[in-house]
Amino acid sequence: MIDFKLKEIRTKKGLTRPQLSELSKISLETIKALEMGYNDPKNAKLSTLVALAKVLKCKVRDFYPNEKSI
Prior knowledge:
This protein has one domain: 434 Repressor (Amino-terminal Domain), CATH 1.10.260. Helix content is 50%, strand content 0%. The chain contains 4 helices and no strands. It has helices at residues 6-12, 17-24, 28-36, 46-56. The longest helix is centred in the C-terminal third of the chain and has 11 residues, at 46-56. The chain is globular and about 30 Å long.
């Protein structure tokens, strides 16, 4: 399983899922699915990851700290 850090980064920034959804224009369902592991983060659209990273002021690779090829 991939160590995907979206929830950890989001909570450190003090944002709720609904706030992140509103700010990033990414559906709440998509954010929840990524955080809960319902969707494989490796299959997430790059545009989704970029939008989330922009709001969270991080890099896309920060979501995958243990992956060497991302």
